[in-house]
Amino acid sequence: MPDLSATALKVGYVLKRYPRFSETFVVNEILANEQAGLKMEIFALRPVQETHFQESIARVRAPVSHIPDRSRTPATLWALLERAEAAFPGAAARALATGGSADDVCQALAIALECRTRGVGHLHAHFGTVATTVARIAATVAGIGYSFTAHAKDIYHDYGKDTGLAEMTRDADAVVTVSDYNLVHLSKTFPAAAERLVRIYNGLDLDRLGWRAPDPEAGEILAVGRLVEKKGFHVLIEALLILADRGLNQRCRIIGQGEELAHLAAQIEGSGLSANVTLEGPRTQGAVTQAMRQAAVLACPCVVGRDGNRDGLPTVLLEAMALGLPVVASDVTGIPELVRDGETGLIAPTGDSQALADALQRALGDTALRARLSVAGRALMERDFDIHRNAAALREIFAASAASRRHGPAEAEIRGAA
């Protein structure tokens, strides 16, 4: 296995948007790679839409290039094709053979040219949607390898159209996914790519998340995440109403923003829970950490959305368990790999508000159980979710890809093409 420092490999990360408030796992990965000495460039394909960002983004040193989107003309496309053809003979034919749209090809050509200028030898994208589509075309043009990480929505969501996941998976040097559940699904769906599929868990910088035993006097339930259907916060509110009917009027804070805000607010008010349940909007990572330090339990009742969208392994669960906060979660996708019922947390069947209420009541009423779950949760984080160890595995993939490509772009072909 080649050494990245010896080959001086530079890797370009292709992301739909950067930065994004909810994608702390991407920032964690970039920071760990930078700390290990990997040279990086970041290519963002769409404008930033959010106004709140995590503090950790300020520590990223990699330059960020925002590639213009949806503002191309035929003249722009032809000019890019001419520049790419001069830099990479045969580029036009290879780009067109990918079947990409004009917008995707334009962005890919721009990235391929930047790779030549900046010495990028491998591309890695997150999510098997537009970022990987563009990375695939750019890598094909530039004659370099690419890999991508498939998470959850990109695998299971019904987009109503072909997103090209089969082609992305076929042509990638490696396909990373974040849970064994996903790995099995992808292996069955794309058997020809099984040898290039690998599970690497999202990780955390555990040095920055010191474990602390849960406060036995704490009684607050905390929930953190985007206010969207798949997070299952409507199920949590139903469970809180069940607890209230049992005489347990627990304080609950829900931190996050999203499209379900009005619906959740109406549900809270209609359930008569407004005195104890609050929607607090987005908070910085520091504020979320402080909330976790003060809470008794984290609730993460994820569900499968009506469109198939679902979570993979929510980062908030990793953060809570690293800090020592006991967790109660649902059994969606890969969550049981992390939250092992009765060992590292408590599990309630997806969408079952009664079972969720029972699990929350059990955790709140048993300080010894919370203490035991806290210790076991941190131990699992240290064993399987250390970002430095997991990012090192990812760098091995990058290095292997670069080592396997010693020829120019004229010899690069789309895998599986006739």
Tell me the layout of helices and strands:
Blueprint: H1 4-7, E1 10-15, H2 24-35, E2 39-44, E3 64-66, H3 74-87, H4 91-97, H5 102-118, E4 122-126, H6 130-142, E5 145-150, H7 153-156, H8 165-171, E6 174-177, H9 180-189, E7 197-199, E8 221-224, H10 233-245, E9 252-255, H11 261-270, E10 277-279, H12 285-294, E11 297-300, H13 315-323, E12 327-330, H14 335-338, E13 346-348, H15 353-364, H16 367-384, H17 387-403
Parallel strand pairs: 1-2, 1-4, 2-3, 4-5, 5-6, 6-7, 8-9, 8-11, 9-10, 11-12, 12-13
Using only C-alpha atoms, the radius of gyration works out to 23 Å
The name of the CATH superfamily of the largest domain reads Glycogen Phosphorylase B
Order of helix and strand elements from N to C terminus: HEHEEHHHEHEHHEHEEHEHEHEHEHEHHH
Estimate the mean pLDDT confidence.
92
Explain the overall architecture:
The protein has 418 residues and is of the alpha/beta class. The chain has two domains: 225 residues, Glycogen Phosphorylase B (Rossmann fold, 3-Layer(aba) Sandwich), CATH 3.40.50.2000; 179 residues, Rossmann fold (3-Layer(aba) Sandwich). Helices cover 43% and strands 13% of the residues. It has 17 helices and 13 strands. The strands form two sheets. It has a seven-stranded parallel sheet with strand order 3-2-1-4-5-6-7, sandwiched between helices. β1, α2 and β2 form a beta-alpha-beta unit. The longest helix is centred in the C-terminal third of the chain and has 18 residues. The N terminus and C terminus are likely disordered.
